[in-house]
Design brief:
Elements: H1 3-12, H2 17-22, H3 24-36, H4 41-62, H5 70-95, H6 102-106, H7 109-216, E1 230-232, E2 235-239, H8 246-255, E3 259-260, H9 266-275, E4 281-286, E5 293-294, E6 326-329, E7 335-338, E8 345-351
Parallel strand pairs: 4-8
Antiparallel strand pairs: 1-2, 2-8, 3-8, 4-5, 4-6, 6-7
Helix pairs in contact: 1-4
Length: about 350
């Protein structure tokens, strides 16, 4: 029912599909209008809209009698959109400039280029300044390193000199110490030699006095020690050649009208040490009664310089019964308390009667 009207409308103005796609019908209309002094572009657009509305109403009314053709309607809708877009593009292309972004409106391209060039210049200057400072810092660092190397070389040289001097001083001190030790040994030997000569001289003097006393008394008095005895100061000394216990040695001295030696002075102790046989030797000192006493009856005051280190100790660990109550002379010359049953050499002493 509506299709004849649509057909009559389109027969009044026949358009091909290429003409619709390219918008040629609009150009012709506008061209004819322009040539004839006809309607303007706005009137052409209004005429197009009226035609579109008429076509749509005809199609809708004919939809009840005939099956619509979606392809034709869709194509016409697309053509209308293209016409409107084309006309809008032509109108706005002639009337308004193309839209710009907000960044370009704020900062135009030439100004942005100038700013970037300024930043690059500042960056280049900064890099140059930093490079100059780096070169200067490198020079300062190199100078500091050279100064440190020179200082280390000076210190090392000084230390080497001090080390050589110290080694030289140590060698000299060692040589001097060796020389002093040798001199001390020589002096000790000389001292012992002189002391021996003095003792011999004293002994010869004592013998001469004994002979003189015996000569003056026509043999009634003996001013000399018995044969085999050694005279020193006012006493005679006998050195054993065997060993026995402290009690047996005491008894032997008593049979000789003497007693175990009593060392009452450093000179007497030195004399006995020089004349006694090597080894351990009994002397006449004991604390059997609880008090240190000599066999000649004199008391002894303890002097640590006479004793070996840690002595006397009254040691009971020898399994011989009892403590250590008798005194011996070590080979070193110092004293030690020992068990009286041990067998050592001994020295007897008697007073010289003139």
């Amino acid at each position: 029912m509506g299709w004849p009207r649509l057909r009559n409308h389109f027969t009044t103005r026949t358009l091909t599909l290429p003409q619709l796609c390219s918008g040629q019908h609009l150009d012709e209309t506008s061209g004819s209008a322009a040539n004839a002094g006809g309607p303007s572009e706005t009137q052409a657009e209004e005429e197009l809209n009226r035609g579109w509305k008429m076509a749509t109403s005809v199609v809708n009314s004919a939809a009840g009698d005939y099956e619509p053709q979606p392809t034709m309607a869709a194509d016409y809708q697309d053509l209308k959109s293209l016409d409107v877009a084309d006309e809008s593009g032509k109108r706005f292309g002639r009337g308004l400039p193309p839209s710009q972004s907000s960044w370009r409106r704020i900062c135009p391209t030439n100004r942005l280029v100038l700013i970037l060039m300024g930043l690059c210049t500042i960056l280049a200057l900064s890099v140059g300044i930093l490079g100059i400072q780096g070169v200067q810092l490198s020079r300062d660092q190199w100078g500091t390193q050279e100064a440190l190397k020179s200082f280390n070389k000076t210190v090392s040289s000084g230390l080497s000199i001090l080390q050589r001097k110290r080694n030289s001083t140590s060698w000299k001190l060692a040589a001097l110490e060796k020389t002093l030790s040798t001199d001390n040994d020589k002096m000790e030997k000389v001292r012992k030699l002189i002391q021996g000569q003095l003792d011999t001289l004293q002994e010869d003097t004592r013998t001469f006095q004994c002979d003189l006393v015996e000569l003056k008394s026509n043999g009634t008095k003996s001013g000399c020690c018995p044969k085999g005895w050694i005279i020193f100061q006012e006493s005679c000394y006998w050195m054993s050649r065997s060993t026995m216990s402290w009690g047996s040695a005491k008894s032997d001295c008593q049979r000789k009208k003497a007693h175990l030696v009593a060392l009452n002075s450093p000179e007497e102790a030195r004399f006995v040490n020089q004349r006694r046989r090597p080894g351990h030797t009994w002397i006449g000192l004991t604390d059997v009664s609880g008090t240190w006493k000599w066999e000649d009856g004199t008391l002894y005051t303890l002097k640590q310089t006479d004793w070996s280190e840690g002595q006397p100790d009254h040691w009971y660990g020898h399994d011989l019964g009892g403590g250590e109550d008798c005194v011996e002379i070590y080979p070193s010359g110092y004293w030690n308390d020992n068990h009286c049953s041990r067998s050592f050499g001994w020295v007897c002493e008697m007073a010289l009667k003139i």
